[in-house]
Amino acid sequence: MRYAIISDIHSNLESLALFFKIIKNLKINKLICLGDLVGYNPNPNECIKFISSITNLEIIRGNHDRAVVYNDYYDFSEYAKEAVKWTIKILTKESMDYLKSLVRGPKIIDNIFAICHGSLVDEDNYLLSKHYTTDDFNWLIKNKIQLSFFGHTHYQIAFSLENEKSINTIKDNVIMLEKDKYYLINPGSIGQPRDNNPKAGFAVFDTETSRIDIIRYEYPINLTQNKILKNHLPEFLAYRLELGK
Description:
The protein has a single domain (2-243), classed as Metallo-dependent phosphatases (Purple Acid Phosphatase, chain A, domain 2, 4-Layer Sandwich). The chain is an alpha/beta fold and 245 residues long. It has a six-stranded mixed beta sheet with strand order 3-2-1-11-12-9. Strands 4-5-6-10-7-8 form a six-stranded mixed beta sheet, with helices on one face. The radius of gyration is 17 Å and the shape is globular. The mean pLDDT is 97. It is built from eight helices and twelve strands.
């Protein structure tokens, strides 16, 4: 079984459309989405339509999806608030209904691995470094699941737990799963990378080989930027895309 894992699309149609072109040649059996279809960028309806048309899909909500559905964004940055308000105004009923249908993580996929948005214990948690991962590894141990994919930080990064005590950071582009370890892996962001690399990111997990590939690709950032400005979203949201911040 081959899974493609994506997260944090954030209404970036240019990047999402190119992602689907890329995976045509990767023999993917199922798409996994870790949430945040909307927010920040200018094409929420189009991105939701793209994702909702996929039949072999497993998906959970993100905090921006939740914010739009419940009109609740009190703890967001000013830029994020403006984008949520704008998104609520332009969403079609079909798009809003789809967001409302999304479930909260964590979710166990095919009895093989778990998915969550922020973390396994709280969808709003940021797993920015190994120092924040103890509770998540305890969740994996308790539930007898070796692997979880998470999003929310917009960073491509991975962590492993060895002998149930030693937590390590992994920055390799290829991860070969070892039976005696537990793993937390962030595939990066489709729509707004923040690890100082403007290239979009995703992961491919092959269960037969126990191999996970961490992938980056370039997309036409300028087209997304122009649409952000045209729709009078905050200029910073356009500028940050070219910096990967």
